[in-house]
Amino acid sequence: MEKRTNEEWIADLRAGGEQQSLALEDLRAIILRGLPYAIAGRIAPNSPESEALTEEVVQETLLRVLDNLDSFEGRSQFTTWAHKIAVRAALTELRRARWREVPLPEMEMNEDMDMSYRELPDNQPNPEEQVGRMEMMKRINRIIMEEMTEKQRQALNAVMDGFPMEEAAERMGMNRNAFYKLMHDARLRLKKRLEKEGLTPQQVLAVFEQAGK
Amino acid sequence: MKIMQFIKNLFRGGKGKSTPVSGEMTEQQSEKMKKMMAMLSQTQDVELTCDEVFAMLDEFTELAAQGEDVRQLMPLVQQHLDTCPDCRDEYKVLESIVLAGV
Q: Among 3.30.720, 1.10.1060, 1.10.760, 1.10.10, what is the CATH number of A121-209?
């Protein structure tokens, strides 16, 4: 395989004809060497799923690279830039497959929640701490209800349940970038409201970390 | 009773876990509260979005792999990676590729 500088990669991929084909072939081989790092620990290597994913991601990456050559600013090795595109494509597919069957948490309409507190035996807070936590939990939730929109609460629910942002975003009809902005706005609002009430996240954390210490 | 509904939803336990019966608040629920407060403590007024971080991730990864102090050089990227699990996963994979010299 020919070793290329960043400029040579760009020139060859823009050249068309055989020069471009050779560059694409070399880039394909490079991406193929990187993909096992994305797949490792997520799906079985050398499985049919892994092979199908690899082929799909390589094709998608080569197309994206060609479409976005103008956005490469030369701030890294060209191959690192290409790997970056491949990694995102691969992890997007893997997340989709992993979370496909998991429904987004719904906002249930139950009203009968008695908030008396119960901890596991080895982490049992004393009664005073239980009351403190209960009061804090209610206070934080009241703030959440007052400060956050329904969409923000739904997003927060998903994130708290461990949903990848990208998956939660898609279910909510937005892209990952918009989802992050939505969550950032929500986090900021909560943080500022806590400040207004004389609380810091660390102080709230401390209330929930007292037991078992 | 909207507050009670939201409490029940938000702190009802994780994916695949059974919903606690009425009258219980489990350790898992206080873990979620801790997770949320940890998220808030990392929150900054100005944060980069996933797209903005993606645009710089290759440069950031190479600098980190070279042993540069990226937290100092590109603090907003580092802050985003501390906050966003999706971008952090992508960074970790890219880092392993760069470190392996693929």
A: 1.10.10
Find chain A residues with C-beta within 8 A of B86's C-beta: 91, 95, 164-166, 176
Q: Which CATH architecture has domain A6-99?
A: Orthogonal Bundle (1.10)
Residue A148's nearest CA partner among A105, A191, A106 is A191
Q: Enter the pTM of the model.
A: 0.83
Question: Which residues are CB-contacts of B8 (< 8 A; sequence separation ≥ 6)?
Answer: A108, A110, A113
Q: What is the pLDDT of residues B36-60, one digit of tens each?
A: 999 999 999 999 999 999 999 999 9
Residues of A in contact with B18 (CB under 8 A): none
- Distance between CA atoms of residues A38 and A90, nearest Å: 7
Report the gap between the CA of A8 and the closest CA in chain B (Å). 18
Determine the Cα–Cα distance for residues B80 and B88; give it in Å rounded to an integer: 8
Residue-wise burial string across A131-142, b where 16 or more C-beta atoms lie within 10 A, e elsewhere: ebbeebbeebbe
ipTM: 0.85
